[in-house]
Amino acid sequence: MRVAIAGAGAVGRSIAQELVSDGHQVMLIERDRAHFDPNSVEQAEWVQADACELSSLEDAGMHLCDVVIAATGDDKVNLVVSLLAKTEFAVRRVVARVNDPTNEWLFTESWGVDVAVSTPRLLAAMVEESVTIGDVVRLLTLRQGQANLVEITLDESTPFAGRAVSELTLPRDAALVTILRGGRVIVPQPDDTLEGGDELLFVTTAAVEQDIKTALGY
């Protein structure tokens, strides 16, 4: 993929390095000269420009990008970049960083955001996930509330141990997409059985998150 990243601070550079390592074409757009350091990610294309200016994005070839990541430390900038990417350049996938959790409600499709990533929320979710069994932990919001990626960990004494995935009676708007078991990632098939300690990942709407918990006996 060709990926444009607005913001070449520590977060933007880290994302760029990961994507470059995976073989993607990456363009870093940075206005601040203090953060403009092509030597830090040599394989990436660097553009010194204001990502909020339409003409700058046109010159950078934003229309050629498959994905745009708004990764600056300013939520206002990330919203403007997302809106321009989606409405002016029809970028297929726009991911935006949320710095202040109180601003999460703004990061919606109306601002061009497909996926909003809130670092504070994600860190909190990771803490909850590591210590909580039987509770629904929201890991990621997709399309700002239309769908969420949630996780629930089965305790060792779960009555569902040994039962097939097909026996789960899940709410209509929930789908079991992955089972994490030890070091394994399992794409569940109807005949696969559950075990105590399994971490179950669901894509679901917010309205039925607690129904998943009930379906698993919690």
TrEMBL record:
Descriptive protein name: Trk system potassium uptake protein TrkA
InterPro entries to which the protein is assigned, alphabetical: K_uptake_TrkA, NAD(P)-bd_dom_sf, RCK_C, RCK_C_sf, RCK_N, Trk_Ktr_HKT_K-transport
Organism encoding this protein: Lentzea atacamensis
Keyword RNA-binding (UniProt): no
Boundaries of every RCK C-terminal domain copy: 137-218
Highest taxon, organism lineage: Bacteria
RCK N-terminal domain segment(s): 1-117
GO cellular component entries: plasma membrane
Transmembrane segments: none
GO molecular function, one term: potassium ion transmembrane transporter activity
Keyword tags: Ion transport, NAD, Potassium, Potassium transport, Transport
Presence of the UniProt keyword DNA repair in the record: no
